[in-house]
Specification:
The complex is a heterodimer.
Chain A: H1 2-7, E1 13-24, E2 30-42, E3 47-51, H2 58-65, E4 73-79, E5 82-84, H3 98-108, H4 113-127, H5 142-155, E6 160-164, H6 172-187, E7 191-195, H7 199-205, E8 208-213, E9 216-221, H8 223-232, H9 234-244, E10 255-264, E11 272-274, E12 279-287, E13 292-302, E14 305-311, E15 316-318, E16 323-330, E17 339-349, E18 355-369
Parallel strand pairs in A: 3-7, 3-8, 5-6, 6-7, 11-18
Antiparallel strand pairs in A: 1-2, 1-4, 8-9, 10-12, 12-16, 13-14, 13-15, 13-17, 17-18
Helix pairs in contact in A: 3-4, 3-5, 4-5
Chain B: E1 12-15, H1 22-31, H2 35-47, H3 57-76, H4 87-114, H5 116-119, H6 128-132, H7 134-158, H8 169-196, H9 199-211, H10 229-234, H11 236-249, H12 256-280, H13 284-287
Chain lengths: 412, 288
């Protein structure tokens, strides 16, 4: 990397030995390095994917780059306007109209009203919201909201765009348009930092990929190579995490939970799925005793409620010590269009039928979106769907037998 | 400094653990200045959010205590104003700069806390927040000013005396400015700690409740015994209220030494507050 630096190639972003320390815990506070020794360079027009498990420090990195939080050490040198898509719509005010929010949002990026005025047509056109421009955004659907927020951000002509998983939600058609627009802007010299759990999108979209784990830089390079390394390393990265966290609910005498992952039908780890996708939850486990029976369980939560619990019908005999994966299928057309978290627990039964349990709360979070193809539970219904599940049920309307009404005359 | 390849350019920026200094803060504040209006608007909304009477609370909240205090102190206890000024007018004129000050301290203290959600998600110069919070206090002040104007007319009509002396009004403007500088200075000290501890806000409301009695708002400084005057001389709000009253009603007088020391205290609070705030706010997102 140093060769290129000394050659003086113009860079878009230079990150040097970046570190971020949090003090956590109130009773016995200790230091936690959310990021440590992160160094990389990005050339203009690069789409850099950032991957890593939950809690690896991806969001912290973007928060430092967007100046929300300062680094503890190291520095970043960058060039041009930075627009964060970290929290799409965070700078929106519910009571204000779409038009007012465009100006407000731009002001939050530190952009002048006259510049917004110039781009207003582009913004409205890309968002496709001409008819709703003077409607308060609280009446917008979540899709419209997202479209407006993205359109404002991208039309501010950022030199560096910071996107945190946001491009993975929203309806399919708009998502495609966003990605297209991002690629187009990338060719025009815009740098994009794109955080995602969706390895498909990462390999498709990115020029380079940065992989971080537990705050450490694991590698940076071509997408195919880094994604493959990342997926192959899931086991060892869990081991590293265990070293920092000696004991916890996910470890018990009889064994432990190694990881919890959401895996597509094609076998790739994913962070966002469509309502019509069938996915699997993989629970990596290790047993520490001989002749155990294991029963796995997942709690699927959404909107602050337990959507459902699924338990393995029968404990499965495992002769340990061994590593294994318990897999459970979540069928298509069950989950609703929202964000889910999954908590896992394992019950180990020893020879005396005594149970040891270990649990991993909020082990996994993922988005479910509806691409509105008419094939989902909502059909062509445009209104709001509620609830924590959205199963596709069969509906019928049948003609009743013509019922003869009692004749009135003659009674009196 | 080694290994920096980016050629110096106008649009280059650096992020480092340390802050960027006052010049950069001022530049940022200017760039984001339009947000002042927005946060002022949000503060207005909070004035009567989730109420049935809605915006009428903007009038009820400042006016109702005035009526009660005026009834208790003016009619029942018959407190002397030390002049021919009726007690009600005396009270409104004394209350308006005090309320402006104390409400600006309270809103300023809560400014970061009220926008917690934004702080952890979006960068903006946080200094905007305590500054924008002057809006609701200013609104209350304008309502008081309206009451004062009506009272002037009323007493002209009933007593035949016109109290207002336009040539002195500059002193009142000066007093308001002093109150703003002091209250902003205080909220720069309190707003970041208030993010993590609600104790700050609770304590402050007691302090202000006590402070108002040590300030000649409800009574005249001339009725305070000589041996207690020193305590009033230390209180910068005495200078605010006294010079405001002088500018409006031409009662009392200007004590130059006290006024200067009040300005000294206020500017010192503001300057030290700015330094403290600019250091503390950098980590505000981690606390929010």
């Amino acid at each position: 990397m140093n060769d290129r630096l000394s050659a003086g190639a113009p860079l878009s972003l230079h990150v040097e030995k970046l570190g971020k320390r949090y003090r956590v815990g109130s009773k016995r506070p200790f230091d936690l390095w959310a990021l440590k020794d992160i160094s990389f360079d990005v050339e203009p027009g690069t789409i850099l994917g950032i991957i890593g498990p939950n809690g690896a420090g991806k969001t912290t990195l973007l928060k430092i780059l967007s100046r929300v939080t300062p680094p503890t050490e190291g520095r970043v040198v960058g060039r041009g306007r930075v627009v964060p898509l970290l929290a799409l719509g965070a700078g929106f005010h519910q009571d204000l109209s779409g038009r007012e929010n465009i100006f407000l949002n731009a002001a939050m990026y530190g952009i002048s009203a006259s510049e917004v005025e110039e781009r207003l047509d582009d913004i409205v056109q890309f968002a496709g919201l001409d008819d709703f421009l003077d409607t308060p955004v609280k009446r917008y659907s979540s899709g419209m909201y997202l479209r407006l927020a993205f359109s404002v951000a991208i039309n501010m002509r950022p030199d560096i765009l910071l996107a945190d998983e946001v491009l993975a939600v929203g309806d399919m058609e708009f998502q495609e348009r966003c990605l297209e627009r991002v690629q187009e802007s990338g060719r025009a010299g815009m740098t994009v930092l794109f955080v995602s759990h969706d390895m498909d999108a990462i390999t498709r979209l990115c020029d380079r990929v940065l992989w971080i784990n537990a705050g450490q830089m694991m590698g940076i390079g071509p997408p195919d190579q880094i994604v493959a390394e990342y997926q192959a390393s899931a086991w060892s990265s869990i081991n590293r995490r265990r070293q920092t966290k000696k004991s916890g609910g996910h470890i018990c005498k009889a064994g432990e939970i190694l990881f919890v992952r959401l895996v597509s039908a094609k076998g790739k780890e994913v962070g966002a799925i469509k309502v019509e996708d069938t996915v699997w939850v993989h629970i990596g486990l290790r047993t520490a005793m001989r002749r155990l029976k294991v029963r796995a369980q997942i709690d699927v939560m959404a909107r602050g409620a337990l959507a459902f619990r699924s338990v393995q019908p029968e404990p499965v005999p495992v002769d340990g010590p061994v590593e294994a994966i318990a897999k459970v299928q979540i069928p298509a057309h069950l989950l609703a269009e929202t964000t889910y978290t999954i908590s896992t627990s394992l019950a180990f039964f020893d020879e005396d039928e005594q149970a040891h349990t270990c649990e991993l709360d909020n082990a996994l979070a993922f988005h479910v979106y509806d691409s509105a193809t008419g094939n989902s539970a909502r059909g062509n219904y445009k209104g709001q769907m509620r609830g924590v599940v959205s199963p596709k049920l069969e509906w019928r309307t049948e003609a009743l037998q013509a019922v003869a009404l009692p004749e009135r005359d003659g009674v009196s | 400094m080694s290994g920096i390849s980016i050629q110096p350019a106008a649009d280059e920026w650096v992020i480092e653990p340390r802050g960027e200094g006052p010049a950069a803060v001022a530049r940022d504040l200017w760039r984001y200045r339009r947000l002042l209006r927005y946060f002022a608007f949000r503060a207005f909304q909070k004035l009567y959010a989730r109420t049935i009477l809605g915006w009428s609370w903007i009038f009820i909240r400042p006016l109702f205590p005035l009526l009660v205090t005026s009834l208790v102190f003016g009619s029942v206890l018959d407190v002397s104003t030390g002049s021919n000024v009726p007690y009600f007018l005396f009270l409104v004129v004394g209350t308006s700069p005090w309320e402006f000050f104390s409400s600006n301290v309270m809103w300023g203290t809560r400014s970061l806390e009220l926008n917690r959600g934004l702080l952890s998600r979006i960068y903006l110069p946080r200094l905007i927040l305590p500054i924008a919070m002057v809006a609701p206090s200013l609104l209350t002040f304008l309502i008081h000013l309206g009451v004062i104007a009506v009272s002037f007319v009323y007493y002209r009509w009933t007593m035949g005396v016109w109290f207002f002396r336009p040539e002195l009004v500059g002193w009142s403007v000066q007093a308001l400015l002093l109150a703003w500088v002091l209250s902003l200075g205080i909220s720069l000290w309190t707003s970041v700690p208030a993010l993590v501890a609600r104790d700050v806000r609770f304590t402050l409301s007691y302090v202000l409740g006590f402070w108002v009695f040590l300030t000649p708002v409800m009574y005249s400084l001339s009725t305070v015994p000589e041996e207690h005057r020193w305590a009033f001389a230390l209180n910068p709000m005495t200078a605010v209220v006294e010079s405001f009253k002088y500018g409006m009603l031409a009662i009392g007088g200007i004590d130059p030494k006290q006024l200067l020391s009040a300005w000294g205290i206020a500017l010192l609070t503001l300057a030290s507050g700015l330094i403290f705030f600019s250091r503390a706010e950098r980590n505000a997102a981690d606390k929010a």
